[in-house]
Amino acid sequence: MPNKAAPDASRRSETARRAILAAALDLVAEVGYAKLSIEGIAHAAGVGKQTIYRWWPSKGSLLFDAFLTLAGEGEATALPDTGDLAADMKMVLRATVDELNDPRFDQPMRALHTEIVHDPVLAADYVKRLDEPMRELKKQRLRAAQRVGQLIEDVDLDVAVDMLFGPVLNRWLQHTGPLTHDYVDHVVDTALRGLGPR
Amino acid sequence: MPNKAAPDASRRSETARRAILAAALDLVAEVGYAKLSIEGIAHAAGVGKQTIYRWWPSKGSLLFDAFLTLAGEGEATALPDTGDLAADMKMVLRATVDELNDPRFDQPMRALHTEIVHDPVLAADYVKRLDEPMRELKKQRLRAAQRVGQLIEDVDLDVAVDMLFGPVLNRWLQHTGPLTHDYVDHVVDTALRGLGPR
Amino acid sequence: MPNKAAPDASRRSETARRAILAAALDLVAEVGYAKLSIEGIAHAAGVGKQTIYRWWPSKGSLLFDAFLTLAGEGEATALPDTGDLAADMKMVLRATVDELNDPRFDQPMRALHTEIVHDPVLAADYVKRLDEPMRELKKQRLRAAQRVGQLIEDVDLDVAVDMLFGPVLNRWLQHTGPLTHDYVDHVVDTALRGLGPR
Amino acid sequence: MPNKAAPDASRRSETARRAILAAALDLVAEVGYAKLSIEGIAHAAGVGKQTIYRWWPSKGSLLFDAFLTLAGEGEATALPDTGDLAADMKMVLRATVDELNDPRFDQPMRALHTEIVHDPVLAADYVKRLDEPMRELKKQRLRAAQRVGQLIEDVDLDVAVDMLFGPVLNRWLQHTGPLTHDYVDHVVDTALRGLGPR
DNA sequence: AGATAAGCGAGACGGTACGTCTAGTCTTCTC
DNA sequence: GAGAAGACTAGACGTACCGTCTCGCTTATCT
């Protein structure tokens, strides 16, 4: 039994919702995460603060929703499959770093990741609605590679995905090095060939 | 001609410095990054706010210094070398996840990483004073493995390090899965063997 | 041509009207004037806010109506006349202070007076619908006294009423002293006898 | 033992204090009591809100202080004494109504009285710092009148003061009639002569 | 040794933003 | 068409911190 009356979603203003999400993206890109304020978003969206507090429990969840409109929730249905696993993975990862290098995506993604680092609830949501679906697509491509003998059979596909995509995300988050196409090519080649001899 | 008089470091109070760093660690562990305030740290350390602002340019750099006292700057001089690369890497990574799972380390590290994500200057400092030295140790161990034929010759060692350590850091930051010894074992085995057949 | 359609009073819900007035009185007595809100009244009355805004132009006018239901508009038809002016005035004033000391009346009256102080329109309404009728009754009693030689002929009856009732109201409003029967007796005696010698 | 550290008054900024009081007076005169906000005062005074909240417990006490700067705390030392009580009281009361009719005084005084009506603590302060001293001056003048036989001996001087000044304040607060010199003359004459015959 | 000056604890200052509350308007649905 | 319900824009509330500043006090260095 909820002790606080939930707002009636059927009456929600779609106009306001969209204005808020757009304003959040614009503002985070403009002023950066540190200076992003609910008050600023409300003002930029031409909306009362309460309208934000009514529908989002935290700045993180708002950023998450905003990010989803940017990413297009569940837009991709499959990774490219030209028959050459290495080439396909390089293509995907190159597109990823291009996105990460795009200022329009960079700031919102950093903001979202910051929230995820500190908010396990939000992180769970992120895993379920963004990470899992994307991970599934990646695993599907890897399974297809297994079928044509381009990937060993007895590998943990989650670990495989982590090894292919983790290093790039880390380098971006931690500014430990430049995000280039060369780097991702190296990562794909190394991951596929393995570090050990033979 | 500097327009702002630099503080005279020779007169700096070591007592205050230590109290501030300790209070920062205690507080971030206690209340979390989001509720961590300079004012709170100053109060907990029994110190005036100005003493913090005088010596640290940002909350991030303070957290960095605090973290260094926790990690023990440049304490380790070499990674273990029993002759078995896989076993050694598993040992190191298991120790790493144990640390990441330790509440005393978890919050300060998350706080530091948050700052790094948004502050390239701090990130550069982090890379130079923490990431680079640790990375060098790891590369030394990998070079030793190359000498005894446990690691292929023509591999980019930076990429190798990223593939071994990146997935763990990632999983921790994004809460994408549990950080277990099993997981790191999988990662090491897979990285060494490679994803491709043969 | 009115630009705002006037509500059709014939369709007005008497139930809602009464619930609102009752809720206003209850709430002002319970939480005090400062924390009295239209929203709170609407909620307590089980009524939509619009129903209040439709029928009352201001919080003051609502309080005024509520107060009228408490006072019983134009209920008294004459002041007591035992033939002894002083005794009759003391009786009336004692009843007045008893009312002012009654918590049920105290808060609503203070609220109403606050609104009157700042709203000349409401004040005019108050004068016409509450002050004037009461004042007329008082003047009637004074005129009767004049007829039997208990009050001088050439006195401004409005001034006389002000001198008898004003001090009590003031003392109550300003908390300048306790409102006792003794005090009103003093006022009546002094007013009738005059301050000057003889 | 106070549970909340009291601010250190010795460090108080006199500039800020004066700016706040002046801004409060200006604003209440300009926009009226109903639209007077702490935020507005702070802004007009070029001051942070906290500086107001630090030094005044309520809007009422701020208005009180502001009013004191307007009235000049304890400025008058004695009422005029020409030997003619009636003439002197008329002079004083005429000055009073002139003040009440002055827009510069009207709004702040109404604001202050509103707060007093609802805040007994503030009312006590008002009585002590403004009402009592003024009342004492009035009573001194009345005592002087008693000495020269212009006022009866056995009268409660507080009641006498209430009868002379109460009606004017009342008429002003409640808008029950115009505040004219004629009116105060009537009041003084009637009070001194008394309502009863002879 | 006394003067000088810096760091220090303390905390007031002008501000920004927080998250909550209410005003008054508007919209939707029911009776 | 009035009414219950409640979302909407707007903005004040009182609180928490920001980063700067000023105040005495304590040290350390320099005449």
TrEMBL record, chains A, B, C, D:
Entry keywords, A to Z: DNA-binding, Transcription, Transcription regulation
Signal peptide residues on this chain, from the entry's feature table: none
Highest rank taxon of the organism: Bacteria
Ranges annotated as DNA-binding: 37-56
Gene3D superfamilies for the chain: Homeodomain-like, Tetracycline Repressor, domain 2
Pfam family, one: TetR_N
Residues annotated as domain HTH tetR-type: 14-74
InterPro entries, per the entry: Homeodomain-like_sf, HTH-type_TetR-like_transc_reg, HTH_TetR, Tet_transcr_reg_TetR-rel_C_sf, TetR_C
Name by which UniProt lists this protein: AcrR family transcriptional regulator
